[in-house]
Amino acid sequence: MNIIKETKTFETVSSELLIVGVRKNSNVVKGWDQFISFFGTPIEEWVKSGDIQTDQKKLTKLPVISSNPNVKRILFVGLGDQKTLTDQVLRETFGQVGKELKKLKANTISIWLESFTAAPIDENDIAFLSAEGIGMGYYTVPHYKTTSNEPDTYLESVEFLTEADGNEVAASFKVGKVYADSVNEARSLVNRPPNILTAPELANYAVQLAEQYDFEVEILTRAELEELGMGGVLAVNQGSSIEPRMITLKYKATEDWKDVIGLVGKGITYDTGGYSIKTKTGMVGMKGDMGGAAAVLGAMRIVGELRPEQNVVAVIASTDNMISSDAMKPDDVITMYSGKTVEILNSDAEGRLVLADAVTYAKQHGANYLIDVATLTGGVITALGFDKTGALSNNEAFFDAFIEASIETGEFVWGMPLTESDKKRIRKSDVADLNNSPGSDGHMIFGGGFVGEFVENTPWIHLDIAGTSDSKSGHDLGPKGGTGVMVRTMATFIERFKDLQQERNSF
Ligand code: BES
Ligand code: ZN
Ligand code: ZN
Questions:
Q1: What is the Cα–Cα distance from 427 to 435, expressed in whole angstroms?
Q2: List 287, 352, 388, 423, catalytic entry
Q3: Among 18, 290, 334, 397, fewest CB within 10 Å belongs to which?
Q4: What is the DSSP pairing of strand 17-23 with strand 73-80?
Q5: Are 347 and 274 within 8 A, CB to CB?
Q6: What is this structure's pTM?
């Protein structure tokens, strides 16, 4: 997409569509007066007659004839009451704009930045939020229909009508676009059918990403996992005819490999439940059980684009969870990569097994801080619904810093307790060190808590995105399907890590 930095006056706007924010109170559009001579109508009259809506997220498109022949249409964007304008409201509003632009098949747009600003949200913030919102709202789920070959993007250029510095706003827009594009990449991974996105294919995607962004990459095959004794991944893979993969990417920001953030993703490309089989309705949608892996790869794409001063290692454990005469069974006892033994009580509690090996591997690769992200339990949906990511942590300050990043991105994260009595139940087994399914009461905590057993003293955050990774319906920032949740929060956390750490006198 071509980004035209700035234009200062309406007369020089070069796009066919001008995007203008309108508010509910007296000053409907800041600075509109200067344009009245071009349109001949004070905007208040259009608002009074109902031709323009000012309610939050309400869009009005009007064809215009003015002294600038380039501008054919104006898209008025309702902002509601100025007092209610937050980053997130604006992001979501621009999401609706993105959806509308796709419908309008608009090729060139100009955004009047000052019509959207609301202190302390300035022109740079609006440029960033509009790129994020429009980029995510514009997203289309890739499909395999033979009947349609519509392009999925029409947008060729964006221009800013603004008094602010054009270089700065264009730079902010570019960063927002990197965020949106990376979320959309993660969404497309989640949306991909499981016969197409297998573990080896996910690994191929990671290799491509590594080539594009100059990451170190290592892909472990089944034979290599056997040699290393990664019993968790191997047990889950046992019923499958498709090979598993352990995927490692390293982004080296500094000469010496220290102060490393480890991102660990659950990459189950399909979860049948195994012998603890899911119901026929519970199984549909389990192609999305690699949402954690997708989030890690999306965040790594942002890291690759923006190249922050922060070392990052990403580890993704990937396989499907299938049934065959070779498959893992309840009552099996397996030995994990760390050496700990686990009594299998439920083959559908497979995510924690692959994550545990991945966490051990990330530590071995020098991770000093760990974030694991996974579609881990139905329990998190029971507890928090479909709009909140559930979290666990072993380090208050580290977790608090992550929450700060999540507030910035507008992705809701809620911490849950992990008590000593929960840990006791995870450690309860007559035949092994741990069991993989202590019960169905509050079991989001058992899932994450199991992973915690392998983290030891490393500062750690567990993110259960079972409710938030896949949306059952369209929303302001995108369509039904993969959401790319946690891509932006993890990337923001990485980008801001040094500051967040300093503000809290280390973790
Ligand atoms: N992949 C599922 C969790 C899930 C549920 C993801 C719904 C997305 C939507 C996970 O592997 C699983 O099956 N968890 C079980 C664990 C239980 C058997 C202890 C669950 O939560 O029911
Ligand atoms: Zn499962
Ligand atoms: Zn699963």
A1: 6
A2: 352
A3: 397
A4: parallel
A5: yes
A6: 0.98
Ligand 2 ion local residues (Cβ < 5 A): 271, 348, 350
Q: Which of 252, 278, 329, 427 is catalytic?
A: 278
Distance between Cα 133 and ligand 2 center (Å): 33
* Cα 340 to ligand 3 centroid, rounded to whole Å: 21
CA separation for the pair 4, 6 (Å, rounded): 6
Q: How far apart are CA 95 and CA 86, in angstroms?
A: 14
Residue type, 170: A
CA dist., res. 491 & res. 298, Å (int): 9
| Digitized pLDDT (tens) for each residue of the chain, 507 residues in all | 888 888 998 889 999 999 999 999 767 887 777 776 666 777 888 888 889 999 999 999 999 888 889 999 999 999 999 999 999 999 999 999 999 999 999 999 999 999 999 999 999 999 999 999 999 999 999 999 988 767 778 999 999 999 999 999 999 999 999 999 999 999 999 999 999 999 999 999 999 999 999 999 999 999 999 999 999 999 999 999 999 999 999 999 999 999 999 999 999 999 999 999 999 999 999 999 999 999 999 999 999 999 999 999 999 999 999 999 999 999 999 999 999 999 999 999 999 999 999 999 999 999 999 999 999 999 999 999 999 999 999 999 999 999 999 999 999 999 999 999 999 999 999 999 999 999 999 999 999 999 999 999 999 999 999 999 999 999 999 999 999 999 999 999 999 999 999 999 888
Q: Which two three-digit tokens encode residue 1?
A: 């997409």
107 lines ligand 1 (CB under 6 A): no
Examine the residue annotation and report whether 61 is marked as an active-site residue of this protein: no
User: 203 CA to middle of ligand 1, Å?
Assistant: 23
